[in-house]
Specification:
metal-binding; magnesium; OSBS/NAAAR; EC 4.2.1.113; binds magnesium ion; lyase; TIM Barrel; 15 strands; Enolase-like, domain 1; four-stranded antiparallel β-sheet; about 375 residues; alpha/beta; binds 2-succinylbenzoate; globular
């Protein structure tokens, strides 16, 4: 395979309703879609999941644009690529910048599967044709949270995650639990606590949560292991797991029972699969995380979630969770708490170009002649 051209689309779309985490409230989502075109004209799509500002990780849409245009795309343009896994070594001398790398790597996985006329999920040895869905409530207000949860339950979601932070925790979860005592419920703190909050975090054991996600800081793998010894509720790590080595450290130190795998955060599908394989060997549960993403990334998440270890529902929701109209066709839909995995080659969804062009704020073509 040889990539002759890459089109960059920077896009912006308002969320249906604002989404609040401990770190940031997102009202409008900026993002980037990459279209790679190979020498035979086959097209593949990837999404760069960085935000406009570096609140979740260090990357932003602009840093990704720079990394892609000036460093990463030139490494693949007009080069013979045997397999998408080889990009890991090709990109290895560039530190970090996982979301930029993942956007390009996943686009190349899509085109590679299309050239082989196979769905991406079978190319990566997925084992299931439908994937359990999950949804996240990111609202500050308890009344709104309960309203949203009840409407998601009506839509068939069987697992709900809520965002917590200091001051919006024990009482907040208590009220939700009394509204839905049997729902599979979990809480994500986005690293807003410290070990000084250990009594509060222990008190959340009262609520039979599936897990508590990223209670402590990003670089606190050691402190998460101290906390996990004190909690009955399993800890799930998100922000702390950037590399395979991080996952190894967390497993060795018993810092968590669960890892949330995001393709963007870990630098691509190859790394996501490597972490999945490591977790399986070590009896650590995994699920696929979400990034308030558009349909292209949702489609890649769906393919990843067909891997054997992804047995618990991830943050994989329908397109209409966040968007009036997504940029893919058909949109991702949830039936009976599950999402059907498409069987067309590649990611299995078409781009809705009308919608893509409507939300595009900047577009650029990069081809071999630029080198
Ligand atoms: O897209 C989704 O459904 C997940 C939403 C979510 O929790 C999230 C969204 C953006 C950045 C980080 C996170 C997170 O998992 O911490
Ligand atoms: Mg999280």
């Amino acid at each position: 395979m040889r990539i002759h051209e890459v089109n960059i689309f920077i896009i912006k779309m308002p969320l249906k309703t604002p989404f609040s985490t401990a770190l940031e409230t997102v009202i409008e989502r900026e993002g980037m879609i990459l279209e790679v075109i190979d020498e035979q004209g086959a097209k593949g799509y990837g999404e760069v999941v960085a935000f406009s500002t570096p609140w979740y990780t260090e990357e932003t849409v602009k840093t990704c644009y720079h990394m892609l245009k000036d460093l990463l795309i030139p490494l693949v343009l007009d080069k013979h690529i045997n397999h998408p896994n080889d990009l890991y070594m090709a990109f290895n001398h560039i530190r970090g910048n996982h979301m930029a790398k993942a956007g390009l790597e996943t686009a190349i996985w899509d085109v590679y599967s299309k050239l082989k006329s196979k769905p991406l999920w079978t190319m990566i040895n997925g084992v299931r044709e439908e994937v359990p869905a999950g949804v996240v409530v990111g609202t500050e207000n308890i009344k709104n949270a309960i309203e949203q949860i009840s409407s998601y339950m009506e839509n068939g979601y069987e697992r709900v995650k809520v965002k917590i932070k200091p001051g919006k925790d024990y009482q907040f979860i208590k009220e939700i639990r009394s509204f839905c005592p049997n729902l599979a419920l979990m809480a994500d703190a986005n690293s807003s606590y410290t070990l000084n909050d250990i009594e509060l975090l222990k008190s959340l054991d009262d609520f039979n949560l599936l897990m508590i996600e990223q209670p402590l800081a990003v670089d606190d793998i050691v402190e998460h292991s101290i906390l996990q010894k004190e909690l009955k509720t399993p800890i799930c790590l998100d922000e702390s797991i950037i590399t395979y080595h991080d996952a190894k450290s967390a497993i060795q130190l018993n810092s968590c029972g669960v890892i949330n795998i995001k393709i963007g955060r870990v630098g691509g599908l190859r790394n996501a699969i490597a972490i999945h394989d490591l977790c399986r060997k070590n009896d650590i549960q995994v699920w696929c995380g979400g990034m308030i993403e558009f349909g292209v990334s949702r489609a890649h998440n769906l393919a990843l979630s067909t891997k054997e270890g992804f047995t618990i529902p991830g943050d994989l929701s329908a397109s209409n969770r966040f968007w009036e109209e997504d940029i893919i066709s058909p949109q991702v839909e949830v039936f009976d708490g599950k999402i059907k995995v498409p069987n067309q080659p590649g990611i299995g969804f078409d781009i809705n170009f009308n919608r893509l062009h409507q939300v595009t704020t900047y577009r650029e073509n990069i081809n071999c002649k630029h080198k």
